[in-house]
Amino acid sequence: MIPGRASSGSERRVLDEAGGLRAMTWVMAIMLFLTLLAAALGLGTRQSAAVLERQLAGRLTVQVVEGSPVARDALAARTLTVLQALPEVRRVRAVDRAELARLLEPWLGDAAEDADLPVPVMIDVDLASGADPERVIAAVRRVSASSRVDRHQRWMSPVSGFLDTLTWLALALVVLMLVATGAVVVLAARAGLETHRATIEVMHMLGSTDVQVARLFQRRVALDAAIGGVAGGLAALVVLVFLGTRLAALGSQLLGGITLGAGDWTLLVLLPLAFVLLATVAARITVIGALRRSL
């Protein structure tokens, strides 16, 4: 019998009857679907955290605190003049009193619109790129020691920390999915070996080597992984597009930063290829190792 033909016939028999290996298609589709969602979550939150940090790093809010309305307005005017003259300041704007009243209305009701209410004058400050906020804070304090300066980066740091935590959690999920996928491939390959042990012994007697037998399994695993990868990838793409449209419809500045760049999409596209390679290598190593120990 011609070895090549024997190998081809054995390949069809081994692979056609290996129901456990065919189940790999569904397993890989589900695993890759979940992995792509986890990876997209991690990449999106990382992008959102970076955007948030850039936006808040150069923003300050100055509160001019003074009991007398006349003195308060005078200090606010002097503070605005000083801030506008600083090279570190890119833009400065005093928050309108009516806008402050709308913000305070849920707590104070109609009293928020009382002109005699000692509400601080709020001044929004956008710093120039690379500017030192401490110099701006010192300039404000020279005008009035009672003025308060809030750095947006400081009071939003818990949000940024939460986004970082989500990023690392998503990375951990991706790693766990890769490990679980490798374990599933190992179990499927071992089950295929046990199912077709008699056939494999005949193949060995006909001159087939361990590498040739392992090649049969790895081809089937690679095919199942590729088909499952396409199915899982398409399903994940549909979900990601749907979630993207819903996030855009919310109009939230924070959630709107959860976007994927060109590099992020490239990584997501490479993940199915990595899954196929992982499954193929795991199947080859498992089969060759098992054959050398038992046959």
Topology diagram in text:
Blueprint: H1 3-17, H2 19-22, H3 24-57, E1 59-64, H4 69-85, E2 89-94, H5 97-108, E3 121-127, H6 133-143, E4 148-151, H7 152-155, H8 157-195, H9 197-205, H10 210-250, H11 253-256, H12 262-294
Antiparallel strand pairs: 1-3, 1-4, 2-3
Describe the structure.
- This protein has 295 residues and is an alpha+beta fold.
- The chain folds into two domains: 3-53 and 158-294, no CATH class; 66-146, no CATH class.
- The chain has twelve helices and four strands; from the N terminus they run αααβαβαβαβαααααα.
- The chain has a four-stranded antiparallel β-sheet.
- α3 (24-57) packs antiparallel against α12 (262-294), α4 packs antiparallel against α6 (133-143) and α10 (210-250) runs antiparallel to α12.
- It starts with a helix and ends with a helix.
Compute the number of structural domains: 2
Helix share, percent: over 70%
Assign an overall shape. Answer: rod-shaped
Strand order of the largest sheet: 2-3-1-4
User: What kind of sheet is the major sheet?
Assistant: 4 strands, antiparallel
- Work out the number of β strands: 4
Briefly note the structural class of the backbone: alpha+beta
Elements, N to C (H/E): HHHEHEHEHEHHHHHH
